[in-house]
What does this fold into?
Amino acid sequence: MGTKATINADRLVMQSVMGEIHHPTMSQVYRLDTMGKGHTLPSVGGIVYNVKIGDSVYGMECDHVEPGVSTKHRDENINRAYNTYSCIGNEAVIVSGEAKGSKGFVTGKHGGAEHVMIYFDNATLEKMTHDDKIMIKTCGQGMELLDHPEIALRSVSPTLLDKMNITEDGDCLKVGVAKMVPAKVMGSGIGYVPTHSSDYDITLFDAVAAKEYGLCDLRFGDIVAITDADNRYGRTYQAGAVTIGVVVHSDCIIPGHGPGVTTLMSALDGKIVPFIDSKANLADLFL
It folds into this structure.
């Protein structure tokens, strides 16, 4: 099977970025589902106490809810750096308030809201307030697989890459994933450039497709393979391409939306070969 792929570790920059907990916002009273019914539901932002990585993306009364703590910087230009440079698995440290000094790690990035989601344990969540500031030690953007230059890495930290079930097989990488997701069910976020930030959504309104591909038990933090999807320089359909990403927010009732996936890596022509691994979830890898 081979060994873990070699990266340009000695050339990666570790740099601090600072954000704060972003209070939940509300842009409209009702969210309309595919049947035209209006709903008022919890959505993005805040400290979420009972939705965590490892939990199902279904079942809760919500839309686009983000597990753990949702953060951003109030200055749009600074937040662009905060969001882009943060990588999944980077260490996050609370630097103000009663929970000062507590550590967690980045679990996702959400487009539209432009949030960075962070895991902290229950005891830490109980001490936190929306005034708390969080510093992330960013590292990962600019990372390359030295023996596999055709594979583009996006928002994956060296820490996460080392924990993932990855082996080399000739000029390909075999990557363990929780689910295989066909490009035909990908929705909101298609076409977004660049892919170093944001996410795009798995739509689950077609019950037949969801059952066929085993998507009815998706979890926050699942590492998934999106087949026939090119996420190197934009998100688009491309036969034979494979994108690896992580599920970052909940299912949605809005047409064209669903559990969001932040890109970790992408390649054309079968250079990434995904296989099913029941432990391919951030909760299993980090907790």
About this structure: The chain has a mean pLDDT of 94. The chain has five helices and 18 strands. The radius of gyration is 18 Å.
